[in-house]
Specification:
Blueprint: E1 6-10, E2 13-20, H1 23-34, E3 38-46, E4 54-63, E5 69-75, H2 83-89, E6 95-98, H3 102-112, E7 119-121, H4 122-125, H5 137-145, H6 165-176, H7 178-192, H8 195-209, H9 215-218, H10 228-248, H11 252-255, H12 258-267, H13 279-290, H14 306-326, H15 330-333, H16 336-345, H17 348-351, H18 354-373
Helix pairs in contact: 5-7, 10-12, 10-13, 14-16, 14-18
Length: 375
């Protein structure tokens, strides 16, 4: 074996550590993972100036047959072939524990063409275990393990080499406690009979995070007071910016800032010097501004009639009461976008997945049946 394991301890948690900087070391470490059915995973990356993240390190924690924890930090910038690791991430027989891992999984998917399987995101699963919605790893570790993590290195320069001891410790701590949290959460899920709920939620999560949709970008803008034509043009400009930022590998805000786009839409003209922009982008931008016949049916611009508004408020109340009863955050149970879709389509079964429909479906459908009986 070419990897060298160092004994380390943090807050009475003992583990072995190795920094992987070449292919032979990685291959040896992956052999340990293949004998496990459970690994903890995290990454550090940089994307201040680029569209695609520059992956810096991958942290992996695994327990051997006698429950000794081994943590590796893989230095991705050493040019190591990660195909073996990607095979593990795609292996449905190995559970991958992460925390708030959307960007990590997107990196694996878009940069390495790897579709992650059997993911256990502790931030998501916490919703089923009486914790706050979108709880941070800091608060989760503090609550579950009695340890306060030092997050000072989170915004440090992860491209600079060598990695500092503080950076290494920070990266280690992000995976050190995930096995303990996973075990605690599984006990809670079993006791609450929510194992199937959690499994379904994670499957939906994986499917949805790889759908490239401009509507999540438009939510960063205040569209109250904008006309339908202005919203349509905003949508089209954001879509155009996304295409160019991606093709040029430039951070979208560095390419053209949100504030500038918003002013362009409001005035339907360009005050900035178009010569400062990509020439082809500038030409296509002008075409969008000149077109007054384009319209989109965006959910953000929905205006309810009186009956729909009454149904919306009644269903929102049902969600609030059910969330309190189940000890689940209302916004996790049904977010506002899904609530609007339910009202418009008058069909909760089409919008809600199985576990949510189990809790809410019949109650919501009765609201629409009342309307039918009164007509």
């Amino acid at each position: 074996m070419t990897i060298k394991l160092l004994e380390k301890e943090f807050c009475h948690h003992q583990f072995q550590f190795t920094l992987i900087e070449n292919q032979s070391q990685l291959d040896d470490f992956l052999n340990l993972i293949f004998n496990s059915n459970l690994v903890a995973l995290d990454t550090e990356f940089e994307r201040k100036n680029t569209y695609f993240p520059i992956l810096s390190t991958i942290q992996i924690a695994v327990e051997n047959s006698v429950k000794e924890k081994i943590i590796a930090i893989i230095d991705v910038l050493k040019g190591i072939d990660l195909s073996g690791l990607m095979a593990i991430i795609a292996n449905p027989k190995i559970v991958k524990i992460i925390h708030s891992g959307i960007q990590d999984l997107q990196i694996f998917y878009f940069s390495y063409k790897t579709y992650p399987q059997n993911i256990f995101d502790t931030q998501i699963i916490a919703n089923f275990c009486d914790f706050d919605h979108n709880i941070s790893l800091y608060n989760l570790v503090k609550n579950q393990c009695g340890v306060e993590l030092n997050k000072a290195m989170q915004a440090s320069d992860w491209i600079k080499r060598p990695l500092s001891p503080l950076q290494i410790n920070y990266a280690l701590n992000d995976v050190l406690f995930l096995h303990d949290i996973y075990n605690n959460f599984n006990n809670i899920l079993t006791a609450k009979q929510r194992v199937e709920w959690a499994s379904e939620e994670m499957q939906d999560f994986i499917k949805n995070i790889f759908e490239k949709d401009i509507e999540h970008l438009i939510k960063k803008f205040s569209i109250r007071g904008l006309t339908k034509l202005q919203i349509t043009k905003l949508y089209q400009i954001l879509k155009l910016r996304e295409e160019y930022a991606k093709s040029l590998n430039i951070n979208r805000e560095n390419f053209i800032k949100n504030d500038i786009i918003y002013q362009i839409v409001l005035k339907n003209s360009v005050d900035v010097d178009l010569n400062l922009l990509n020439n082809n982008f500038a030409k296509e931008l002008q075409k969008i501004l000149a077109d007054d016949k384009i319209f989109l049916n965006l959910s953000e611009k929905i205006r309810f009639d009186d009956l729909q508004l009454a149904q919306y408020n009644k269903i929102k109340s049902i969600i609030s009461k059910s969330a309190k009863h189940e000890m689940i955050a209302p916004q996790f149970l049904v977010n506002n976008d899904k609530l609007k879709q339910i009202v418009i389509k008058k069909n909760s079964k089409e919008i809600l997945n199985n576990w949510r429909y189990f809790i809410l479906g019949d109650k919501i459908q009765k609201i629409f049946e009342i309307k039918i009986k009164n007509t």
